[in-house]
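S., here's the first fold you wanted:
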Amino acid sequence: MRRTFTAVAVLVSALVMAAGAAVAGQALQGVVSQQPVVWTPNVLDGAIAGMAVVGDIVVVGGNFTTVADAATGSRAARRSLFAFQLGTGRMLDFAPELNGRVTAVAAGPGGTVYAAGTFTKVNGDVWPGLVQLDLATGGRVAGFTSTAGPGQIRTMTSSGAWLYAGGSFTTISGQRRAGLARLSATAGVVDPGFDLRLARRDGGTVKVESVAVTQDGNRLAAVGAFDTAAGMPRAQLLLADVGGGPAAVSGWSTDAYTRKCKALYDSYLRGVDFAPDGSYLAVAATGGMAGPTLMCDSVARFDVTGSGVHPPVWVNRTGGNTLWSVAVTDAAVYVGGHQQWMDNPRGRKNAGPGAVPRPGIAAVDPVTGKALAWNPTHSRGVGVEVLVTCSAGLLVGSDTDQLGRAYHGRIGLLPATGT
């Protein structure tokens, strides 16, 4: 068994070296391994809220305080943010001082990373909600001047010259934006040509839970608590054309999420990701037990070509358990949450006809929408809130410590197989 683990570690190291950089959202050939590598560090408390890959470095954000080396068990104090090397798990000295939790991270240019959260100070200086940090020093990148609030950034992604941020904020760097903004990747200046004017008909706070951008940078998807965008009906899910000139809400739409799951949810959508070629997207949802006619507690595929109203291509329901996260590759649509089953449209927190057990993590066939045989298992807890693809495989972040039937403290990597 030890030889198997070592071979996996060597494989991942080779993949990283061959790629030159591990880039989030990269296409993976074949389904990733069910056996996690043994060298990822163990986070000993709290939960993971975000991960970003910068070259061969993984940056992890959340609300934790202590991280341990997987091989030696040696502990290091790391509040809310730390970094480790792909292929070895070696922790970096990177240890910026933040006085609050991190809710989102995104890769930055030139060996930097963006972090957002509830913090109001960075390395002792007043700097609320959003910062760009140098991975070599842990210091703030002085040229990036943006801050966040009031409200909170809940999701970020970087694409070319831009950083996209979504959340519950009403302003960012003093500019009014309801829940979604685009910033210059280098200076943090809010783009005046990007304002999708998200709104809720009940007058409540707009909240964007997840954003994704196609690899060519031309299209953006966002999910969350909103009913309209630029005055057009867009219930919980929108597409925008962002490739050139001022951004505009796409003519593509769906009415799949117009119906409520439970009154307590202002939005029940939690994750969104595009296919590597940008031809479709997948959406992960919570929502509660509502039977097979609604989109609650499900993952769904939508083709995104053309305009007009689009129904889902397929829907895979858990039978009453939350899905938090989704990551799409050529071979699979991966989902994470605290689900017990997939293929379970008639389940009501039990296994209905045809249900297959897939605790915490699952892979769905992109064409058929049925669960693949792949079943590493993950301890449930609140659930797997973070899935990130890179050339090395699938990074998994959560609040629990069992992945692949072995101890992995809140972080794991299921390595690429290359087949």
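And the second, which I think is the more interesting of the pair:
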Amino acid sequence: MTGAADPLWVGIDIGTQGVKAVAAAADGGVAGRGSAPLRSSRGDGRHEQDPEEWWAAAGRAAREAMAGAPGRRVGAVAVCATSGTALVADRRLNPVGPALMYDDARAAGDAPALAGTVDDATWERVGSRPQPHWAFARIAHLVRTVLRPGRGDLVLHQSDFLAGRLNGGPVAADTSHALKSGADPLAAAWPDQVAAALDAPPGALPELVAPGTVIGSVCAAAAEHTGIPAGTPIVAGMTDGCAAQLAAGALEPGRWNSVLGTTLVLKGAAEQRIGDPRAGVYSHRSPDGRWWPGGASSSGAGVLTAAFPGADLAAMDAAADLERPASAVVYPLPGRGERFPFTAPDATGFTLGSPRDEADRYAATLQGVAFLERLCLERLAELGAEVRGALRVTGGAVASPAWTRLRADVLGRALEVPENAEPAFGMAVLAAASDTPLSEAVARMVRVRSRVEPRPEVGERLLGSYRRLVRELADRGWTAGAREPAAVRTASGRGVR
């Protein structure tokens, strides 16, 4: 139990649609939550946001969260943001133009040639050659088109800007948000060839520190804006995907968090760095010195919006038979291009066979996402990742009990749903780790709300459809000829294929 004299730990999450803030106690209880919406400008491959709106929304969300516990001391605050969003600002942290969001595609065509100016040994130190949608080429584009030479402008990630505003001046960037920009997570430095490729003037790129490092303190103006007391330590954060992993508590080797939201993201823990650009797998450096390998698919629950616009999904859950193979096998890719568990820029979704009706097509789609999730875990196992025990599951899809049961059946392992799964809560956990080892903060704060056990007989019935999908992906040349993935151990220790 915690009392009124114990500190709160604040996490702020800057997402695409809005900002969320959480004030949590040391036992994981949430004292206050807040949120505020954000707007985007999109078109012709562009996706921009106004950084001043981030700051305004962060202030509203934080003040709402702090209102739930008036007068409480705050031990620390940490910020997470979208991975790959970048902007240019002056030394006073006034934005120079809009921010380019993580999926802004205007520089994607430049990425291969730009990455080719950096040798393979450097990319090995970074951990992965940048993919076209990563921030590496986007930052080079900003330097070339927005940064004003001789003015002392800064190239910042979304989280750097917000943490700097809290501090009242520029702060160091964490290596998690900077990973897709070309930062070396081991040395916490910009490799010389990467800096040369980005062509940023001296001092324009932020200094780098490990996540969990104290990088400043809340200034008086930020305290007035956010309600977070002046002098509160600011802790270097991690990307929103890593923040969700922290919220799920999947920090021991072999434990994984699967985030099934608009897209499917898997992240786990390992003693060694694991990566393969062909599979879209790369590793973040954990605050405790371990590695967090994983990847993000282009598929996920977002496919339902495209495939079943306006549908009552709860009613579809009830109508669909998810315990038997659908009449069709679906690869549920809503757009063009896949990035995990394989990279195929020209991949498109497909359907093998003909669904009987809408309920059957819906069942085939949900099964297809579950099959893809299984293939992701099996690819990770092939690369040497330890995959065992229950899987922590977060994201909007956990609101569907039927889909969660299906995923457990297809994966052949128990699924655990954390009580507080949002990235803002993960940042509150990281803030608390500034006062105690990360493992202890997680053990105290992360709680499991529910657990779903697999039904082996259902998994066996669906196995043929899964294998059909795997064969088709290989026949199309997207999975590099890997026709039968390696077995992944279930919670019982039995291998499944």
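Why I say that: Residues 249-414+453-496 form a domain with the Nucleotidyltransferase; domain 5 fold (CATH 3.30.420.40). The longest strand covers residues 30-37.

Talk tomorrow,
H.
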